[in-house]
Amino acid sequence: MVLHTDRLRLRPLAIGDAAELHALIGDPDVMAFWDVPEISDAEIAGEILAAQLFDVASGAAHYWAIERSADGAFIGSCDISDISQQHRRAEIGFILARQYWGAGYALEAMRAVVRHAALQLGLQRLSARTHAGNTRSVALLTRLGFHHEGLLRGYVERAGARHDCQIFGLLL
Ligand SMILES: CC(C)(COP(=O)(O)OP(=O)(O)OC[C@H]1O[C@@H](n2cnc3c(N)ncnc32)[C@H](O)[C@@H]1OP(=O)(O)O)[C@@H](O)C(=O)NCCC(=O)NCCS
Q1: Measuring CA to CA, which residue among 137, 140, 164, 136 is closest to residue 150?
Q2: For residue 166, which of 94, 109, 138, 148 sits 20 to 30 Å off, Cα-Cα?
């Protein structure tokens, strides 16, 4: 389903977005707090996109491409994943290309996604997981009304080092 906001259009991510997604996740700045470092291999980026689209097809997730309405620019991607119909809960994610940070685009996109999760999908809980130090992500989640729920010590092994993560939750 396409979601519209004042400045953005969120449309379902598609196989044709492979090059844009590769550029996005190939940037070390953008991937500084991701579970894996930047992905320079286009084939691996394609596999990630294929896995996301598989999750969409199986009903476990929704992935959107975020486009700026004014010029159609692909500015990033966001998602609702790990959907549990039984427990009416899911996880959210968001990632913008570096040049689009600091304009309120992620907040605008995720407000629409949270509304969609509640009203269209009937979800009652959303969670988000951030790596320690991802202050921009924490600021965004806080603005969206998420509460800090806990610390997952050594949750991720990235490039040979263990990293703590924080869990945030929002009851809808
Ligand atoms: C996390 C991420 C999406 C946040 O992007 P962002 O642009 O900082 O987030 P927001 O949309 O909330 O924008 C907030 C900033 O826009 C500014 N802003 C400008 N115009 C605005 C407007 N109309 N409305 C709201 N904020 C506006 C705010 O003042 C704030 O600026 P600041 O960073 O100087 O404090 C981005 O940093 C990112 O893609 N990071 C890499 C991927 C990642 O780590 N994802 C999260 C994994 S958990």
Answers
A1: 164
A2: 109
Compute the distance from residue 120 Cα to the ligand 1 centre, in Å: 25
Which residue has a Cα nearest atom 37 of ligand 1? 136
Residue 39 belongs to what domain range?
3-171
pLDDT digits (tens, 9 = 90+) for 15-62: 999 999 999 999 999 999 999 999 999 999 999 999 999 999 999 999
Return the CATH number at 87.
3.40.630.30
Please give the structure tokens belonging to residue 92.
Answer: 């959210």
Closest approach atom of ligand 1 to CA 96: 39
Q: Is 104 close to ligand 1, i.e. is its CB under 6 Å away?
A: yes
Q: Is the CB of 31 under 6 A from ligand 1?
A: no
Q: In this predicted model, what pLDDT tens digit does every residue of 124-141 receive, in sequence order?
A: 999 999 999 999 999 999
Cα–Cα distance measured from residue 27 to residue 2, given in angstroms and rounded to the nearest whole number: 27
As for how many domains the chain has, the answer is 1
Residue whose pair of structure tokens reads 């966001």 in the numeric block: 78
142 CA distance to ligand 1 middle (Å) = 11
